[in-house]
Amino acid sequence: MSMLSIHRRAALGLLGGLAAAFAGALTVLPARADSTVTLWSWRTEDEAAMRRIFDAFEAKNPGVKVNIQFTPDADYQNRLSTALRGGRGPDIAQLKAYGELQPFVEAGYLEALDDSVPELKHMPDAALGGARGRADGKVYGVPYSVPMMGVFYNKDIFKAQGIEIPKTYKDFVAACEKLKAAGVTPIANGGANGSAWELEIGVGVIGPTLYGSGFYDEMMSGKATFEDPRYVAALKRFAELKPYYSDGFAGIDYTTATQQFIGGKAAMFLGGSFENGSFKSQNPKLSFSIFPFPADDAGAKLYTSAFSDGSYGLVSESTNKEAATKVLNFMASAEFAQAFADELGWPPARTDVTVKDPVLAQMMEMSKNSTPYLTLVGFRWQSPTASSVLQSEIIDMVEGKIAPEKLAADMHAAVATWFQPKQ
Fold first, then answer.
1. pTM of the model
2. Is 202 left (phi over 0), alpha (psi -120 to 50) or beta?
3. Integer CA distances (angstroms), 258 to 180, 246, 255, 272, in order
4. What is the pLDDT of residue 34?
5. In terms of DSSP H, where are the helices of 307-420?
């Protein structure tokens, strides 16, 4: 970092301190006329919906324009990091959660929002946890969703094949067999070409039914590791479903898999609640819903993985902070949460919304029995992450080239280089 950049940051910090000191004595002026706030996002599939949300915001706030720029997820982090290092970033940046947020906080690229965005107080810790700085506990982004995971299913295909929502894992396999015999791909699935994060989500769908709600706390306290038989069982179960995955599984990527489900070529898809709005927008005629992955016993309590998907943060070197802060306050409001739920169909960060979409209603019901998405919430804080190992080896595991025990051992060895259990 150049001395000029260091002095610039010091000056910004001093100005921020002065602003805080006088906050009680001064009236905040409205955003200057024709202020344009640049907002960056990786959610290209949400572009139309987000534009509608901000069109409504701009109509009520004529002095502020929101220029949303979308970059595909695979390129987004690199683009944002490069821009922030060069002082050419946006006013507001969509931010990854948990460990992927921390480098931006530690580099001083973001401003804490605890005082400037009071509506954050109305969000649950499940949402705020992914936006906090690990060292100071401050909130550096406005969360927008707490997704959960489950099995999306095509209601028309299930009805045509006489299949009901499986009550047990045995029922689930029987349904897959029936679908396969009818020439229908049971589960659209694939993680090729850099999209193995979708396979990690698949493990997150299956895992909680095997290791239960208390496993996360055991992992955090060091009482359990990835080599625990319960976690290995989750990997095994994901692998043993290979006969029901998309043909050519190892060469299928996330986009292809989603298109198989959206186009009615596959009956099920293991995914996160963020798929709801995307599926609907791409095929409004698609009749689908979601259910939690079944356990071995019909009476077992079913759990789902949940996590803070990300947040929107104020870039420290923004030259338009007043207007950007106004936008962030809107994004933290109940009004935005309601619009987000209505437009995108996945659980918003705030719970004070009226649920209108039946698929979202089912997701919200499932989320009542949730456990943290293990590899993201617990083990993406430093490198090597559990996710990086899982994503690099999981296709080989499903293809039978390595054993689930080997993948679990590799994950444990990776995080053991930095993970410190809570005492």
1. 0.84
2. alpha
3. 18, 11, 5, 12
4. 61
5. 321-331, 334-344, 358-366, 386-398, 404-415
